[in-house]
Task: inverse folding
């Protein structure tokens, strides 16, 4: 599945990139066609965004070598991703507020 | 004494886990994550927060409707192009680690071609939006908005067309036709208690047939806000693609001159990281804009 070599850029593990590439193509095809095939909007959103997250995970872990890097990278990535997620979560009440307004205005 | 020697020895042999350049690149990517999360977050809030219209129809362009301004096949093809370019750039990274410099140039050349392919499709999409008047602030939101915009345009356009003609000389046939259609529309719009579907269709048809009238080309609920979001999200992404392509061309030129060495490995790796991040952003933008 993977091999390693030394070089000026440091020691790198090289997974089977072709396999990752094929995986990305398959996931893209599924999300493309599932966006029409699934009836419920919520199910479609969850499925398509879930597949996109899986694709991001594949790119980050294998193409960007996050899987093979040390703790130092997680020190950068984890707080960034947590703050980014919190940012989205604190925006959610704004979304809910419109629904609330339409309820009180009878819309 | 012995401890001091050991510490000194460790200090001499210790090396940082990564190059400063790679560390800086990851810090930069951290700021980029925040930047694009904010952009995407604002898009979600605006989209979900837009209430439906009074008649219950969606207040935001519906991706399943024929009137939706984007073609998912273009978006899907661009996704394919960026995924392929992610694969080619990681192969370039692998090649430079194995000192196969000719191979590095070939893989990066392929990456650059794919990147320009992405930009070409994006340019075609942008051109189509401009041609249909889907530009922030220029989209009519509903029939009443269309009437107000059309009346304003017609008054100024007809005045300009008439002023441009010379006294005693008949205007050119296309100008005369535009003036005739404009006069008919302005009275129809003024007299109609509420612009119906037929009148709306007439205005939109005239917008394409007589550009001199400067009529609104499109009527789309939430179209202006949608266009702002679309151009902001894809525009910033395209700028990132362009930045990456400039550096790739530079590396290819160095490689073509035979000056590429193992010393460039960190540069290729960092540019690969950057390019993968650009791919990741598109992986989220594609479903949000084209599929859902």
Result:
């Amino acid at each position: 599945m993977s091999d390693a070599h030394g070089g000026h850029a440091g020691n790198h593990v090289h997974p089977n990139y072709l396999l990752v590439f094929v995986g990305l193509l398959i996931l893209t095809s599924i999300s493309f066609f599932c966006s029409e095939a699934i009836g419920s909007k919520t199910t479609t959103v969850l499925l398509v965004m879930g597949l996109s997250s899986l694709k991001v995970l594949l790119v980050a872990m294998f193409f960007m070598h996050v899987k093979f890097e040390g703790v130092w990278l997680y020190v950068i990535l984890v707080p960034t991703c947590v703050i980014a997620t919190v940012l989205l979560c604190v925006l959610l009440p704004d979304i809910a507020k419109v629904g609330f307004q339409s309820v009180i205005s009878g819309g | 004494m012995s401890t001091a020697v050991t510490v000194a020895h460790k200090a001499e042999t210790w090396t940082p886990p990564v190059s400063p350049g790679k560390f800086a690149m990851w810090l930069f990517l951290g700021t980029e994550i925040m930047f694009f999360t904010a952009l995407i977050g604002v898009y979600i809030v605006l989209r979900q927060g837009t209430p439906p219209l009074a008649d219950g129809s969606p207040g935001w362009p519906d991706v399943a409707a024929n009137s939706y301004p984007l073609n998912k096949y273009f978006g899907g093809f661009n996704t394919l192009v960026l995924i392929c370019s992610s694969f080619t750039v990681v192969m370039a990274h692998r090649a430079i680690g194995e000192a196969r410099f000719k191979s590095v140039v070939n893989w990066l050349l392929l990456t650059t071609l794919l990147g320009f392919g992405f930009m070409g499709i994006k340019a075609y999409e942008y051109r189509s939006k401009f041609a249909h008047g889907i530009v922030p602030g220029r989209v009519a939101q509903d029939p009443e908005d269309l009437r107000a915009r059309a009346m304003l345009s017609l008054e100024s356009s007809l005045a300009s067309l008439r002023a441009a003609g010379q006294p005693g000389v008949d205007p050119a046939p296309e100008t005369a036709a535009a003036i005739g259609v404009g006069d008919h529309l302005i009275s129809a719009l003024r007299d109609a208690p509420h612009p119906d579907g037929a009148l709306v269709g007439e205005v939109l048809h005239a917008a394409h047939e007589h550009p001199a009238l400067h009529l609104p080309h499109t009527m789309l609920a939430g179209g202006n806000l949608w266009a702002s979001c679309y151009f902001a999200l894809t525009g910033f992404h395209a700028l990132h693609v362009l930045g990456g392509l400039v550096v790739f061309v530079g590396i290819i030129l160095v490689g073509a001159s035979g000056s590429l060495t193992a010393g460039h490995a960190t540069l290729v790796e960092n540019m690969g990281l950057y390019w993968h991040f650009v791919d990741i952003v598109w992986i989220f933008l594609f479903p949000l804009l084209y599929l859902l």
Residues 70 and 231 of chain B are 12 Å apart (CA to CA). Chain B touches chain A through 54 residues (CB under 8 Å). The radius of gyration of chain B is 28 Å.
